[in-house]
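Example 4.3 (complexes with small molecules)
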Amino acid sequence: MASEEKIGSPQYVILPEGASRIIGREAQRANIAVGYAVASIIKTTLGPRGMDKMLVSELGDIVVTNDGATILDEMNVEHPVAKIMVDIAKTQDKEVGDGTTTTVILAGELLKNAGTLLDQGVPATSIIKGYNIAFEKAKEILESEAHDVDIDDTETLKKIALVTIGSKNIGGDDARSYIAELAVRAIKQVAQKVDNKIVIDRDLIKIEKKEGGDIMDTEFINGVLVDKEVANANMPKRIEKAKIALIDVALEIEKTEMDARIEITSPDQMKAFLAEEENMLKEMVDKIAKTGANVLFTEKGIDDVAQHYLAKNGIMAVRRVKKSDMEKLAKATGARVVNSLDDLSKDDLGYAGLVEERKIEGEAMVFVEDCKDAKSVTIFVRGGTKQIAEEGERAVNDVIGALASAVELGKYVYGGGATEGFIAQKLREYATDIGGREQLAVQAFADALEVIPKTLAESAGMDSIDVIVQLRSKYKTKEGKGYGVDVINAKIADMSKNGVFEPMKVKLQAFASATAAATSILRIDDVISAKTKAPSSGGAPTPGEEE
Ligand code: ADP
Ligand code: MG
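Answer. The structure with adenosine-5'-diphosphate bound is encoded below.
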């Protein structure tokens, strides 16, 4: 898996103040403590009954969130081992959009259990080897326990979306259900079949947010919301059945270009020069108008004179549009971005049922909507406060990531700690076949997985030891394998019946990243004060590739 390569480098320099070198157990002990401490910070946020964290910057900016990656990102961490933990959360977020807290908690637990084994005299190399064996086996069990989901299975997709959104504080059940539906709709719309496989380009779902209104005012836009205003007050602000031109051309005359051609020596020449300039701009606009376009988006600028002619032709124009938005506009409207006006023809134009500038909280934004078969869409998130709008944006981002992961692999597993608990059980059985020191490490890995149901149980105010005992006995029965923690009703329950579903890819990535982080931290046994700066990222090995 390519993603693991981004997990932090094992060559970090980690030293207490004043020391120039710490070696062996002492170095390992110190690093484990740091990794575990980071995990402890975000542990209480896990799941729908998890708590939020409020992060206050030195400047007084406030972020309230339950999102593991965001918390770690906003925290000021200096310690290199802490940075590895932050990196895995970021990687998880980028790769699959969800499961960041799970990844970090699991990495922390793997480190803690490794510490216990080290104290018992098990060498780090055996632990690393055992962890990698356990990961491979866990992956195998995960894959064999997964269930199929396809892009047309709206009901299952909505359940997956609801689990992801469940831990975000964005309003009541109505709001969650509504957001889940919008996300499923967006995913279905941008999904593409390539070689019989579903591919989701997450960039094709634009997530915009604006404070104000309510989360229920969040809009699905069948097209693109461009956070810019119409260039000139004389241009139309609303165009139905729009014919849209997308250009990567400045409607301006480069001054140097003119200077090189004309040397001005008299007022008459000046007049001629200005007329010439105006003419050139008018010609540019004529080329656009000739195609029948009535809406124009350009990545570049538009001169006042050009604006005047565009307005005269009844063309709505928006300038300095981001490149990423131009690409989305092309996908949504079917237009082609043209680099030269001479190339622009009627065939390059796109279509939208409506293009309109609207004032949102006093700020103009251009809505390009009602596109035909839009391959790029926008979810415009609203929220009563800045914090809610931001958490809403993170929630939508997570849900889109989770849904993309689910439909791309076409697999889901049970949440509520059921998958982790069940795999732990199977791993313990498997460990007895291995023998030796590695057996202890496989068992330690299994125990670490149980941190997920345990933490969920704690969040619901349950006795976590008791919950683990109950779950273990369920997993011994054939009908019991779907059991996990029903955090809402504070009891164990069958997650297959509760509909608590999570994408398999999210779990797989979480297990892989946690294993890679824990083993790369364990591999450090000599910490030397070095003059050169340690690299901020490098190649931690993929679990399983060890020894
Ligand atoms: P992460 O950043 O790891 O996604 P979350 O705070 O989103 O962390 O919590 C995810 C965990 O909460 C998963 O283990 C998931 O199965 C669990 N979870 C979510 N909704 C429910 C639910 N309704 N019942 C039980 N567990 C749930
Ligand atoms: Mg989540």
